[in-house]
Each structure stands twice: as structure tokens, then as C-alpha cells.
Amino acid sequence: MNKNHRVPSNRTLGAVEVKSKFGAEFRRFSLDRSKPGRFDEFYRLLQHMHRIPNVDLLVGYADVHGDLLPINNDDNYRKAISVADPVLRLFLQRKEEADYSAFGLDSLTRPKKTVLAAMLLRPDANRKKPLVIISLPRDFRPVSSIIDVDILPETHRRVRLYKHGQEKPLGFYIRDGSSVRVTPQGLEKVPGIFISRMVPGGLAESTGLLAVNDEVLEVNGIEVQGKSLDQVTDMMIANSHNLIVTVKPANQRNNIVRSGGGGGAASGSSGHSSDSGTSFYGYSSPGTAVATTPAHIIQNFHPEELESDEDDEDLVIEVDGEAMPIPRTSSASCTIPFIPRYVPHLDLRTTNGALASHNRSGSLGTLSTADRGLEGRSLEEEGTVITL
Amino acid sequence: MKRFRRHGQESHRDRIKQELYGFNKTVEHGFPHQPSALVFSPSLQLLAIGTRSGAIKLYGAPGVEFMGLHDENAAVTQVHFLPQQVDLVTLLDDNSLHMWTLRAHQGVSELLEIGRFTLTGPPGAPPSVTRVTAVLTHSSGDLLFLGTEGGHVFVVEVPGFRELEERNISLENVTNSLPEDYGGRRSLEHVESLQENPVNPRQVLIGYGRGMMVIWDLERQSAVKHIPATQQLESVWWTEDGGHVLSSHSDGSYCRWMVAGEGTQSEQEKSEVPYGHFPCKAISKIIQLPTEQGPPFLFLSGGMPRASYGDRHCISVIHSKTHVALDFTSRIIDFFVIRDGPDHTGDPSALVVLVEEELVVIDLQTEGWPVIQTPYLVPLHCSAITCSHHVSAIPLKLWERVLSAGALQNTHYSKKPWPITGGQNLSPDAPQRDLLLTGHEDGTVRFWDASGVCLYPMYKLSTAGVFLTDAEPNDNMNQGTEGEWPPFRKVGCFDPYSDDPRLGVQKIHLCKYSGYLTVAGTAGQILVLELNDEAAEQTVEATVADLLQGQEGFRWKGHTRLEVKEEPVMFPPGFQPFALVQCQPPAVVTALTLHSEWKLVTFGTSHGFGLYDYQQKNTVLVRCTLNPSDQLAMEGPLSRVKSIKKSLRQSFRRIRRSRVSLRKHHVNSAAKVQEANARLEAELAEMELAPVQRKIEARSSDDSFTGLVRTLYFADTFLSDSSHHTPSLWAGTNGGSVLAYQLRLPPVERRAEDPVSAHPAKEIQLMHRAPVVGIVVLDGHGSPLPEPLEVAHDLARSADMQGCHQLLVISEEQFKVFTLPKVSAKMKLKLTAIDGSRVRRVGVAWFGSSRSEDYGESGLTVLTNQGDLHVVSLPGVKLQVQYPCIRREDVSGIASCVFTKHGQGFYLISPSEFERFSLSARCVVEPRSLVEVPSQTPSTTLPRAQPDGPSVAHRNSTRATDDVAVLQEIQKSLEGYQPTFLENNVKSALAGGKVLTNGD
């Protein structure tokens, strides 16, 4: 029946061909490119065309790059019409069932679009679900950061690697070596520990913050001087869930210049370089960077923080086979919802980490907004907890 | 991490710590590794042994022990006591001489080095001129004759080491005095032997390497007599009456020379090659001693026919018609003979032989010359030690039963008391009876009395009898065929060969109250034994425990199970096996625990663990812990992934063994050595090629051997609810998981019929995944639960069942306390994350305060892979003290460590020696003994070593004042001597590190 409406595609005609999909149904119609009208009119038109007058819809369109972008106000409606070439493909969803995460899914290469998408989605923030899926910091998983920039000598770098639940290996090797120190007696050769090799594709390599021949000075705040290679290895492995390594980089040209604010920001973002292909990557614009990652540019860690992460994810299985992460007695009030444990490793290589956690939390049913951050975190951390 | 604390509190705690903990290495048990010299002082009745590592050890009566260590890391080649004094001189490999003395201090003697000396030749002379080859301590007590490689004899005054140049006996002087026909020919070579005329201290015999011996008159500075032996000289003995000289030679001959006459050339009275006809090896030492009535004793070391018995280590003892060639287990280092009588000039009573691996003492006054059991210097390693287990405070009854079982095994030993009696043992009696059990490679378990300074053998249990092995042990030992020549007799117990390596004992657990013992071995065998005072014939039924539980894809590539003898076996009185479990696959047993009250034994291997009811003789539970993705464990035996260090060590051991075995099994041994060498080289090459780098990677569940069971523990605790405590079984694995089972035991009256059952209750997976090495349940007071039957015997306070129990899980990286019954983390102590060390050994100990009798604390004694000892408090898991103890490279030493329940411990410092240490300030076992100057002290002796009276009692502890005192004493007594002496001593006395005593 749609064939009857079909108009030969001709840009000069000034008409926009629209193909609208809701569920399994398609509707085709056209709009005048020069007079698209307002968004609410368009919205009602869609309801009418699909004969779903009382259904709340979420409208999305595929732009020329194949990204799924929302239409929810006059501006993006007009934008959608203007870029339609020649067909404007619409995807309608019920708002209750809407899969927000679908937006921007393919925007790997085009971070700016997602920022746009995030901003455009924001006005709709009266929903039960948190609307901004892609822009909240908790949906990022930090993989590394430079910390303590303000207290360390400029020649040193303190790097924090977040192992969390990733399958990605830490991926580096250390060796014995000797370094030259300035002492009252002059220059002296002292034994030291150095990074000897990076595993391609490993966490350490992907951060870009550690390099071969960097001298390891501290592990989680403890000096390695006087310790054997095996001791340092064991210390690093024991801290592998939250490894903080202080190095003296072999390449001293990329050091953070503390006085210059611009330099700091740049380092901050590089320190934030993320792992494989998160599309929510685009906070390189200075304004948002400050808003979302303030703690990372000058982030200091405190001794007690060393304890915080790893702690007490030990897993207990009681008689009936239920699995429980062991709560810390001190924080017993903060109950972590029960999570089924018999889940294979999250395959974070093929899918996006944030997405995966989102999907899983969705499957767990209703969760209060306040719980989500916590929940997400614990999920990530427990990704490594296997299954007995 | 440091919390702010009030100063007062801190210092109070520090004081308590000082009263509880103190680290001492107290005594070395066992046989010194690589002994290199032996000497005996008849007047002191002390025996001294020098070792290749520069240690010197003195032994007297049981409990009298002294130990010193030379600063130089050089072998001790000779040791000599100064006659009638408490001083001794040592000669090291580096040609330095050292003077040691036993100085009494606060009523206890200490062995101190008081001087050192190196012979200096004329400028420009080659080093051989002053290279010392023979030492004679002159009976005057103040002269030392040093024969050298260059053929000179230097005379040195002791104890100051002052060279008396004018009295030196130069080679030229001697050569000039020789008859033309000898002296003109060739050089005399080095000085091989120096002997003093027993009846005329003015005469000294100088034996040169070429064979020529010269009797030199010290006063006239001229040769008195020549003894023109023509064979290469090995040793010289001057008979007691001064009338004859015996010389032994490299061709296996010995000669008797008459020296009493007037002529300048002595007559050869007799020359004999005792094992003659065919070429013989050298007789390296000869001794002849008279008896009051009848013929003398003659002792010859070596001299065996080169071709047929050249590999034997023999000492021949010839007395009248009796001729025995004592055949020792390893190379003979030296020997001496102890004589009867107040002046030790009577009949020979005992022959003391130091061989490379043991000390053998032979009773010469009892028919058949039986061996006297040694109270110290026992060869712990007669078969290689594979594990050890310590049990404190043994009840008297068990002790006596073990002793009597042991006594029945020792009937072949001489009844004579130990002949070496020097010194007084002043150590207080041991406060309790402690047993150390060592498991050995040949399947034996040896029980040692570890209560005091002497580690005394009590009883030996062999588990080999249960199994069918290739060779029956000892079937061709100790049986010399009639009329064999030489008349060999095997002596000694060192036997490093294992008929079957699967017999090796890996884990031992003894219940001291019930006398039940369980022993587990390399081939997955677990024996349960019971102490029986009567011999009994019984069949041991084997139960197979299939630990794989249908796990697929497994291929066991290791050894097979041991075959069990089907017919009844006669077991001698002592521990007799009555139940046997065999794991399938037959992997080495890695954990073992016995609960005698519940009559249960639990065991674990790299594949899983099981629970065995030894009353009903059935397996209650089998649990497979194998991770299906763990390829290495799936494929087979542990040995496939042993560390390179370990395999290197084993290669060395193999080489050493095969070298020894060269003498025993001619066939194939050369090939074996070659093979071992090749393997060693390959391993070394591999090690050098690989760059030393370490991978930094978080542990994952896929790592190898995550399923290996590291620890098993029984506890009566609140496992599932907080109102009922039940028996439970806990297992910890290499992959950081803890598994708990609730046990249901039938009531006592139905125990024999109703089944025992086990139900899984909890599993804990530690996030850090480090191997779990210990599990302890703490009661309501925070004290570890008592041992089974301990409460029943009123020996421990019963556990507090009112308060909350806590679970302490010790992994290689952390100590973590959880609440029970609901498992939630309470507190922890991280070790590896903080200092990079890992827990290797852990024990629970009770530390009594040295100040007040009734105060004490429980604590964990921990040995790390860095060789450091820690004490961790309970239940607070706070690090209390830390002491460096073992070199971190000494992997076998660290692995061998065993802790006692009272804060002491043992570890192997060599294959044959345990070092005993104490972490407790109260519980210290150390030698305290006094050696007094012999009564007939020559007037020339300096009053140096008399026990310090009250006048010096105030010099209590500081080493510095002692040294100054020594110095002053020496200085005072030697006033007027030349300053060279003083320089020598100032140097040595001020170097504090050299002052070595026992127990300090």
C-alpha cells in the first residue's frame, strides 16, 4: 500500500521521503523540505500515520553516518529534515521500552555526535530511568590515571591502573637494572627495577602512561628500593586489582608541567585515554572535561584509599548455593543487591563495558538511582570473580 | 597506616613485646655438613670438628657443645688442641692459623677466637715456602711446629703466635745432615708429618713427602737419626714407649722402624702390605696402641687393593688374631682412639671415626666391637629428609612407650656409655618432652627427642613393609661372607638410596594423647597407625579414594600406585599400620590432618581432598577441587612444574648421590653421573639464556594448580547458625578458596555402626586468589581452638563456646579474620602488598612472658619467602616482631622450617643439620656448659680459662667490655713479649664479630 504514496526521489522537488518504522510496521510519506513544521506537529503526524495516538514515542533517525540520533525538539527535527538525503529513516519506540543505549551505538569514530546526542536528549529528563546514559561519569570506566601530580617531582609519574573486571591483562614485565642517583658522594649507580616489556593490547600499553625502561620507584606508595625483583613482582601482583606505580619515565619529554594549566588539562585527558572503543569518549572539550573528570587531573591518593578498592569482594557461597560478596562489617548497612554469580566472564572485548553493565542492571529489575553507581561498580569488580 | 597512639600505651606494649618475644638461633642439631677435620683432646675429653665452611664445633659429654665460625669463608683443614689446655689451633685452607679458647664467663664456657696468624716467609720466597702442611702442638703447650710445603719447619710460640726464627728447622739444615747417598739425590719434598717423641719432648720427628724421616733434637738443633723410607709418606706414628716409629705409605704398605738405638740410621724392622699382592691404595693414617696385657691394637685407614676394593672407605683394626676391615658409608675424614685410665694412657676403649656423612664410635672392649649410639652428631639425613612434624609436651606415657619401642630396635648397639665425657652440661632440664618427627625418602619416620640440646634418636618407623617394593631393604647388608678377604664389616647407617621414591614420606600428623599417627607419602598413600607394645601380624586393608570424581579429560602421567602386600605382615612393637587410603590419581599428598576424638583423617592432593573414617574404615567424603582449565594439573604429577631452583637443587643432590653410589653400584653409575651432569648443564644454560624478567599479571582462576589442597583443618565451631556448634572440616586451596563441610558424627555409643556424613556448608573465594596456607578458628576469647583430646586430658582450657567464633584464613599474602557463622570480613593484615614477602610457613604458638609466669599470648609464627620470621598477634592480626632468619636464597631451608607450639622452630641449614631457633623470650633451648682447665695444668700455662669468680661477675653482658677484658688479660700475662703478638691480638680481639659463642 505504501507503493501508492511513492514519489520518485528527486531533490529538486523539495520533498523529503520519510520511511518510518514502528515495531515491524513501516509507513512511508513525504514532507516538504522547505516547510518542515514544528516537532509537536511532526510527532502527532507520526502517531497518526502509525495509528497509535496514545502511545508515547521516542523518535530516532539514522543520519548519513549511520548513527541513530534522537528527534525530540524543533532543532533536531529541523536538522534531521535538512540532512535527509534522500530518505529520512525514522525509528519509533515506545518510551517505556525504549532502548536508550541504542543511540550513538555506531558512533565509534565520531565522538562529537554523541556529545550532541547527549545534550539533545537531556531535556527529556523527567523519566523514571536516568536519561543520560552516555554522559554520566559513572558510566565511564576509568582504566588509568595520573595521580599526585601536585606532590611528586616533575620527573616522576604516579600511574594508577584499574584492573577491575576486565579480561584485559595488566600486561607488562619488570626486570632488574641499575640507575644513577645523585648522592652527596656524587653520582652513584644503584640497583633499580625497570619495566622491561609491554604486552601488546594489554592494559599498561593501552594507557600510554608506562613504557619500556621506565624505572619503577614505588608500588602502592611503598618504595621498592632494596627489594628484590621477586618481591616487587609479588607486591605488584598482590595489588593488581588497584595498582599504583610510581615511575621515572625513560622519556622525560612528556612530563606534566605543573605550572601551566593548559598542559595539565592535556595530560589529564591523555591520562584518561580509554580502553577499546568506548563511544562515550568525547569529553575532550574543555568545559565538560572539567565537569566530569575533575578528580583525575590532580588526583591524590591516600593510604586508606589503597584498601578501598580490593576489599572484601571475597565471595561466599552458603549451603544453598547462593553466592554473596562478603560485606564489610563496618559498612553493613550498605547492602549490595544479590547478584547471580554463575555468569561467565563479561566479554568486554566485543561489547562496550558500560553497555554491558547497563544491560545487566536492567535485567536485574528495578534499581533505585542511588544504587546504580554502586551496583555498577561492584559488577565491574566482580567480573573476575569466577564461578566456583 | 600508623594510627596515632598515646605514648604511654605504646611503650607499655613495647615492654610486653620484649617480655614475650626474642629471637635466638640457639643450637645446631645433626651432623655438620662437609666436615673436614677432626681432633680429640684426651685431657679435656672434647672432640672438635672443622668443616669446609669454616665452622668449628666442639662436643663433650651429651649437651656440652660449642660452635665457632671463622670470618674467612675457608675450609678448616686441621684442628689441634694445645696439650693440657683449653685452647685449640685451627689451620684453614687459606693458610691462616687461628687460636681459639674456651673462656668461662658467668659460669658458662664460651668458644672465642683470640688470635690469628699467617706465616710470613722471607721476601721474594714463593708462597709454597710458607704453605703449612703439618702442625705439631708441642707438649710444652707453648710451641707450635709448622711444617710447610717447602720442607721447612717453622717454630712459633703460642698463644701469641710469635715466630721464633732462631729455632726454625730449615730444609737446608736437614739436607746437610743426611747421608750423602740420600741427600744428594732429590728434594725431600714437603713436610708430611711432625711427631713428638712421646718420652722425650726434646725430639721431634719430621716426615717428608718423599719418605725420608728425620728425628731432630730441638736443643742441639741437629738431626739425631734418619729413617730412610723410600715410598711416598702418608703418616707417621711414634709408639708410646718411644722405641719405634711406624710409617704408612702411598703404596699401601706400612713399616716399623727401630729408633731406640744409638746409630744415626734406624733399622727397618718390618715392612708389610696388609692387603698385598696386587697394588693397593695408600694407608693414610696409622695408629698403634699398646694394651696392658697382650698384643697392641693397630689401626690402619685405607690400604685396600686398588682394583677390587679401591672404592671402599675402610679402617682396619688388628688386634691379636682379630682383623676387621670396618667398611664405612662415606669417605673417611679422620679417626682417633679413646683410651682408658685416669691419664688416658690405658687400653684403647673406643675408636671414633669421622666420615663425610656421620660419626661412628666403635666399642673396642666389648666382644664383636659393636657400635655405640651417638647422642649427638646424628646423621639426620641417613635417608634424605622429606618433611618434619613437631609435637610439644608429650604425655609421659606415650613417651615411655615410644622409648621402649625404640629400645627394641637398638639392641645391636653397645651398652657402654658414651665415651666422650668432657665438660659439664649446665642446662636446666627440659621443661617438657618434645618430639620431632622427620619423614624420609625411604618411607621411614624417625622420632627424635627434641626436648633439649641433644637431638636424640628415639624410634624409627618404616612404612615400606606395608608395600611391595622392588628390593627388600637391607637384604645384602651387614653380611660379610665367611673367609672373605679383606674381612669387611659394614658400619654406619648413612644410606641415601631409596628403593622406591614413591615411599617418600610427605606429611605426618601424630596425636600425642591417643597415640594415633597418620603418615602420607609421595604416591598418595595415607597410613593410619596405632601404637602397640606387642608385635602383631596383620593385613593392612587398602581403600582407594578416587579424587577425580568423574572429572573428564584427565591423564595421569605420573607414577603408579604402590602395591599393597596381600598377605599378613609382621609388625614389630611400636606404631603399626591398621588402615590405608590410596588416592587416585596417586599424586603426592599435600595436606593431612588427624582428629583422634572423631576418629577421622583428612587428606588432600593436587586433585582434591577426602575424609576417611578410620573407625569404620570407609571414605566419608571425596571432593575434587580440580579446575577443568588447569592443564598442568590435569595432565599429571607436580614435578612437571617444579621451579628451576628446585630442579637444580635436585640435580645437585642426584649428582652427589650418584657419586656416592659409585662406590656401591658400579654398574650404570658413571652413566648416571653423566646424565645428571648433562641435565644440570642444560638447566643452567636455560637459566642464563632467559632474561631475568617477571610478568606482572593478576592471578586468574585459570592458573595452574589452583585446585591443589594446601591445608586441612578440623574445628568444632558455629558453621551454620550461631546457637549450635558442630564438627566441621575446612580445606584451603592453592587458588585462594576455602571450603567448609559440616560433619555429622553419630553419638559415641553408635560410633562404630552409624555412618559419619559430611555436607557442604560454605565456600569462600578470596578475591586476591593467593594460596590458602592456614585455617584457624578462634574461640570466643580469640584463642585458637584446642587440639582434639587436649581438653579431655585437662591440658587446655576448653574453648569458649559462648562468644562469637572467628575464622582466620592465612593466605600466602594476607591474614584475614572473618566472623562466624555468617562469614563477613572483620579485619586483615596484608603482607605481600606491603613488603613483597609471602607466607611460606605458619604455625600457631603460645608465647609466655619471661617476666611473669602467668601471662602469655597466642600468636602466629610466620616464615616468609624472604627468610624473615614474623610474629602476628591473635586475634587482632597485628604484626608484632620481625627478625631476619634464613637467607632468602636458601629455598630448601625455608621450605624445611617447622614451628613448635611454644615459639621455637627448626629448619635445615644443610641436608644433615637442623638449626634450632626461638622466637619466645621464655622458651629457649640452648647449650650451657662449662669446660674447666685440666687439673695437671703445666705451670707455663696462662691462667686464662679459669672460671670467672665473683670478681668478674659484674661484667655481665656487653661484648665490648669482654673484649677489652680479654685484651687486658692477655696483655698482662704476656708483658714483656714482643709487640707482634699484641698486634695480632688487638686486631682479633677488637673485631667483635668474631666473638662467637653458643647461644648468643
UniProtKB/TrEMBL annotation, chain A:
Record domain PB1: where: 15-95
The organism's superkingdom is given as Eukaryota
Indicate where this protein resides in the cell.
Answer: Cell junction, Tight junction; Cell membrane; Cytoplasm
Question: Which portions of the chain have biased composition (kind: Low complexity)?
Answer: 267-279
User: Any idea where the PDZ domain is?
Assistant: 158-251
Q: Which UniProt keywords apply?
A: Cell cycle, Cell division, Cell junction, Cell membrane, Cytoplasm, Membrane, Tight junction
* Alphabetical list of Pfam families matching this protein: PB1, PDZ
GO BP terms: cell division; centrosome cycle; establishment or maintenance of cell polarity; regulation of cellular localization
So which residues are the signal peptide here?
A: none
Q: Which InterPro entries match?
A: PAR6_homolog, PB1-like, PB1_dom, PB1_Par6, PDZ, PDZ_sf
Q: One GO CC annotation, please?
A: cell cortex
Positions of region (Disordered)? 255-280
Protein family (similarity comment): Belongs to the PAR6 family.
Q: What is this protein called?
A: Partitioning defective 6 homolog beta-like
Give the gene that encodes this protein. LOC120061473
UniProtKB/TrEMBL annotation, chain B:
Q: Where is the Lethal giant larvae homologue domain?
A: 272-370
- Localisation: Cytoplasm
The residue intervals holding the WD repeats read 431-449
Q: Name one GO molecular function term.
A: myosin II binding
Keyword Magnesium included in the entry's annotation: no
In which residue ranges is the amino acid composition biased (Polar residues)? Answer: 934-943
Q: Which family does it belong to?
A: Belongs to the WD repeat L(2)GL family.
Q: Supply the name of the protein.
A: LLGL scribble cell polarity complex component 2
Originating gene: LOC120046104
